[in-house]
């Protein structure tokens, strides 16, 4: 591979790989790079990440590794690129990366379907009380079929409000149309009619909430969306609404959501992502109307392979002196 960047004596760029990746991805890394792996798969905290980066031309990280400005400024000068094995890049300070001339790439597209599938899983499971029903069966507490037992929220024909109509939001909408849901959305800008597919645009996200029988959070985590779903905004939603989140936990104010699920203002929630995960707010654990998953939105074999290959495509382009397709800094 021709390179305009520093390389080791074997002529291959030196890459620090912070987490254990799928076997096929690691095989390609071994073939094309002078790769340093993390055999314990432990998460490198800031200073450890800085120390381990020494002597590497690039680092391949996951959303578990946090790169705020203070860490980016301390990275050794030989590190020229951070490729993240994720579509989200809120764990990396993009402005600080640009200021330092550090390239940053992510992995969009390839996880859209898996994440949208997980969103529908959460939506259905939360609405139809899957957690309660599953426990009842396993714990041998299922007495008999009851005409009035385990009544959930009807999904078909309801209004689905999607906050963030990017690739994943649109894939959620496409699936929800199969349940005859009426799609409403808010996005930074209105989509073209081809992408909208009849979905109803709400310029004001506050107004979107008023029609949210179901709210699906699919926007990126930014300063603007931090704790977007708070008590005041939940109060605007219809009584008995359902919230699902496969984006980032920081978009939800946990205490407000827990209070609304406890009071019955909201019927249920389905959550795959949490602020400060895996140390989630303990209040969620006690709520039977909350269906919880451990951030597995993109966790299929096919998707994780594709995410790894996409990250490597970006590194390949960068070290060949080309512009990586998914460059965000
Ligand atoms: C993503 O790709 O952003 C997933 O949430 C994994 O971090």
Concise overview:
The chain has 329 residues and is α/β, with parallel strands linked by helices.
Give an overview in words.
Belongs to the D-isomer specific 2-hydroxyacid dehydrogenase family. The chain has 2 domains: 14-106 and 301-320, 3-Layer(aba) Sandwich (Rossmann fold); 111-292, 3-Layer(aba) Sandwich (Rossmann fold), CATH 3.40.50.720. Helices cover 34% and strands 15% of the residues. The strands form 2 sheets. The chain has a 7-stranded parallel sheet. Strands 2-1-3-4-5 form a 5-stranded parallel sheet, with helices on both faces. The protein is of the alpha/beta class and 329 residues long. It is globular and about 70 Å long. (2R)-2,3-dihydroxypropanoic acid binds at residues 63, 86-88, 111, 297-298.
Protein topology:
Blueprint: E1 14-17, H1 23-32, E2 34-36, H2 46-53, E3 58-61, H3 69-74, E4 81-84, H4 94-100, E5 103-105, H5 112-127, H6 130-138, E6 159-163, H7 167-177, E7 182-186, H8 193-196, E8 200-201, H9 205-209, E9 214-217, H10 231-236, E10 241-245, H11 254-263, E11 266-271, E12 290-292, H12 301-319
Parallel strand pairs: 1-2, 1-3, 3-4, 4-5, 6-7, 6-9, 7-8, 9-10, 10-11, 11-12
The structure holds (2R)-2,3-dihydroxypropanoic acid.
(2R)-2,3-dihydroxypropanoic acid is lined by residues 63, 86-88, 111, 297-298.
């Amino acid at each position: 591979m021709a390179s305009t960047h520093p390389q080791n004596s074997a002529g291959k760029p030196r890459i620090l790989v912070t987490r254990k990746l799928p076997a096929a991805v690691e095989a390609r890394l071994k073939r094309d790079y002078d790769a340093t792996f993390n055999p314990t798969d432990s998460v490198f905290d800031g200073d450890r990440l800085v120390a381990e980066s020494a002597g590497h031309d690039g680092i391949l990280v996951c959303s578990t590794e946090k790169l705020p400005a203070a860490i980016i400024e301390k990275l050794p000068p030989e590190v020229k690129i951070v490729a993240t094995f994720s579509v989200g890049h809120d764990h990396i300070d993009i402005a600080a990366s640009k200021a330092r001339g550090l390239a940053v790439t992510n992995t969009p597209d390839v996880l859209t379907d898996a994440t949208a599938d997980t969103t529908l899983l959460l939506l259905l499971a939360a609405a139809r009380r899957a957690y309660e029903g599953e426990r009842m069966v396993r714990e041998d507490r299922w007495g008999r079929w009851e005409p009035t037992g385990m009544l959930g929220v009807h999904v078909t024909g309801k209004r689905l409000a999607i906050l963030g109509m990017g690739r994943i939001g649109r894939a959620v909408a496409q699936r929800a149309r199969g349940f005859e849901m009426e799609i409403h959305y808010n996005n930074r800008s209105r989509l073209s009619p081809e992408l909208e597919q009849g979905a109803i645009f709400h310029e004001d996200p506050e107004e979107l909430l008023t029609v949210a029988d179901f709210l699906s959070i699919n926007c990126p985590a930014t300063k603007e969306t931090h704790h977007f779903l708070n008590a005041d905004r939940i109060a605007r939603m219809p009584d008995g609404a359902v919230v699902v989140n496969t984006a980032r936990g920081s978009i939800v104010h946990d205490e407000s959501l827990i209070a609304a699920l406890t009071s019955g203002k909201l019927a249920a929630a389905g959550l795959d992502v949490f602020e400060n995960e895996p140390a989630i707010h303990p209040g969620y654990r006690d709520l039977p109307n909350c269906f919880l998953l451990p951030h597995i939105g993109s966790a299929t074999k096919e998707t994780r392979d594709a995410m790894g290959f996409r990250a490597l495509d970006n590194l390949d382009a960068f070290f060949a002196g080309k512009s990586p397709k998914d460059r965000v800094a």
